[in-house]
Every structure is written in C-alpha cells, then in structure tokens.
What we know:
Layout: E1 8-15, E2 21-27, H1 33-48, H2 60-64, H3 71-75, H4 82-92
Antiparallel strand pairs: 1-2
Amino acid sequence: MTLTTNPALSLPCGVDHLSMLFGLQMIGKFRGDLELLDAARAFETLFAASGETRRPLPDIARLRASQVDLKAIVTHPPVLDATASSDASASAV
C-alpha cells in the first residue's frame, strides 16, 4: 500500500491465547490521512474498553532486569570453528 501512497497504519489490539501481540492494519483512501486517523482513534477507544483488546503495555520492570551482556559481543567477537568455516567455503565453491 505504501507504493500507492495510500495512508496506512498498524493498530495494536491485544494479545492472543499464547500472549502473542497482534494488531489491525488499517488502510485509508488516497489522501485520506485524517479520515484514517479518525477511524483508528475510534477503534482504539473501542478496544480500550475491553481487557482482551486493550493496547498491551510492556512490563518495564522486567525489561530493566535484563541480564543480557551486550558488551561481551563488542569486546570479544565470537570465534568461529575453523573446520566449520572451511567446510562451508568448500561447499560453496
């Protein structure tokens, strides 16, 4: 839809039974940006009234508690197995 220059947006609208996020893609008519935004606001207001379709909020405390050590990737790049890389290059030839 981007190539047709129609306005488009993705509206978060809840989680499924596996706690996976899902959303609704909305596409407006050519130069219909304002109408699309008005419709999205109406849907978001409607979705907010239900716990099942309310916009999910991230658990900030859980995100702050991440134990991922990203510095190790920069200071100590992964060492590839020499035999694995030579096998890969031989099969690519």
